[in-house]
From TrEMBL, chains A, B:
It is found in: Membrane. The keyword Disulfide bond does not apply. PROSITE patterns: EXPERA (PS51751). Belongs to the EBP family. Keywords: Isomerase, Lipid biosynthesis, Lipid metabolism, Membrane, Steroid biosynthesis, Steroid metabolism, Sterol biosynthesis, Sterol metabolism, Transmembrane, Transmembrane helix. It holds the Pfam family EBP. GO terms for biological process: sterol biosynthetic process. It is a multi-pass membrane protein. It comes from the Eukaryota. Residues 58-201 form the EXPERA domain. This is EXPERA domain-containing protein. GO terms for molecular function: C-8 sterol isomerase activity; cholestenol delta-isomerase activity; steroid Delta-isomerase activity.
Amino acid sequence: MGVMEAAHPYMPVSMELPGFHPALMSQAFILATYGGASAVVVLIVWLLSGSVAKLRTVDRLLMCWFAFSGLTHIILEGYFVFTPDFFTFTKPHLLAEVWKEYSKADSRYVGRDPTVVVIEGITAVLAGPGCLLAVYAIATKPVYEHTLQLVVSTAQLYGDIVYFATVILKGVEICLPGPVYYWFYYIFMNGIWVVIPLLISFRSWGAINRAFASTKKKSA
Amino acid sequence: MGVMEAAHPYMPVSMELPGFHPALMSQAFILATYGGASAVVVLIVWLLSGSVAKLRTVDRLLMCWFAFSGLTHIILEGYFVFTPDFFTFTKPHLLAEVWKEYSKADSRYVGRDPTVVVIEGITAVLAGPGCLLAVYAIATKPVYEHTLQLVVSTAQLYGDIVYFATVILKGVEICLPGPVYYWFYYIFMNGIWVVIPLLISFRSWGAINRAFASTKKKSA
């Protein structure tokens, strides 16, 4: 519109981002803040869960996971879903800067790819609160403790399969070169939500099986 | 490449479909065949399930649903996933004709939209066999009967949310005008896999809750 657009650092170079404003925070600051905040959350949940009677170590670790996962879904991913113009911000805002940075590994974020927005929407609005409810459920052992974990983990897995597989099928370059962007941001940070939900799904599937087995034994 | 391409009937008109060959079977024939084959499947499962002792009517109806759903996933949707060139076929092939016809309601099929291919891939390869296993599980009552139904239904729901929501976000016209394409093919035929999985999820969630409640009561 007559105004020069700033060139953006994302792949593909041809992508148009009207109003793009370059990053205002360093990679080190962003990673340290997200890593530090996550560590604080995990530490708090670990310490608090220590005062709940009868909780085993695996339960306490799962509470830490669901707290970290749920807050990431709601705060980080929720911000992305409801802030389509985060890449135009001219003043430093931590959450906007996180997505400017992460888009270097997956430019579908800054480019507002509909599939990514939908997956993130489901994750932020449904899986996120589901994770926080799971923290509570693991501590208090209601009847839906394992059902909830299984459903939330299945949804996370489904989302991650669509997330990775659409990139392979589209065959478009979305990631800047370099091991940090590809292996750490793209593969590792998303792979976490493949591996851990898969383990939780197996565990909760087994726990439900044992409940039914016990019911059948006692009613036989 | 020098050869004139046949014009295609899909939306948007600008979509390129190299090698497209027009439909070779009528809408009435395709719908009657799919409807008739589905009715035969439902009838067979209904009759066979009548000979299984202790099955309630709702169990028998669910077996019919999972048989119909699983065979649709594996045969129809599986064919789509693994036949990217179905729209170029010059000889009549029922499954290719089904997708030429359905693409009038959702041209992402003939256009091989990556998100649709991924969802259909998960549905055909994972949910389809899961549905057939559910038919067996409802009849034989293993400990995983309700867990399997819940996971399969959650996956179907997730897929359908992504399926519908990406269309809304993209804002691209994919459906021919007319109530049959939009309301019957697009809304109704996909809406089935929203409503029924939602009902099954609630039912199986409740059944698992009762199993845990019974376990806790008996161990108390």
